[in-house]
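hi! just following up on the protien thing from before. the input was this:
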Amino acid sequence: MTNPSAVIAANWAQIQARIASATARCGRRADEITVVAVSKTHSAEAIVAAYEAGLRHFGENRVQEWESKQPKVADLDATWHLIGHLQSNKARRAAHIFRRVDSLDDLALGKKLHAAADAEGKCLPVLIEVRLGDEDTKSGVAETGLLSLATSIAPFAHLEFVGLMTIPPFFDEPEQVRPYFRKLRELRDDLSRRLSRALPVLSMGMSHDFEIAIEEGATEIRVGTALFGPRGSAA
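and the predicted 3d structure came back as:
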């Protein structure tokens, strides 16, 4: 019988090799890249196996799913990211159980996260999710609304606005996604100038296209399938 921990460790080694190749091509260092293991739909045991393999950042899509798994991994010294769309009515719970929210996409949610973080006595790092494709099913603020949202949340004392995230359209040929990654970097650079503040995090690129994202400036990539296999298979 296949050992799930051994499979995850082997997959992680392959991901590291891919990152090393991508960073070498564009004159960057592998240690500049934060890898968020997308653990949604995978078990707490799979998270532990990934942690033991060396991962320290994990991304979950839903508050309720993470609440059910959290007690089983509470002793791990890891950073827990909310990477899925967050409804405003769950902002308080999200601020309590996640260390970072990577999918802030409107001002109402920003206000509720700020109030919740204030109540928790913490400063919550956040990314603004930007919708760059024309897919109505995707969450994220439209490019035209980014400056307004960023300007509004930047002064919030209990939110630390650190950068941008995007989930571009899926293409079978990864090279086709390059313009979307390049656009997010350009938006970040322009926003940084306008706000006169550093925005160090660019979260973009997933299992099938993260090399392109790294070449275009990603500082954070999100890998699920490449690490855990198909959803549920590492349970």
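The domain at 4-228 is CATH 3.20.20.10 (TIM Barrel).
The CA atoms of residues 175 and 212 lie 7 Å apart.
cheers
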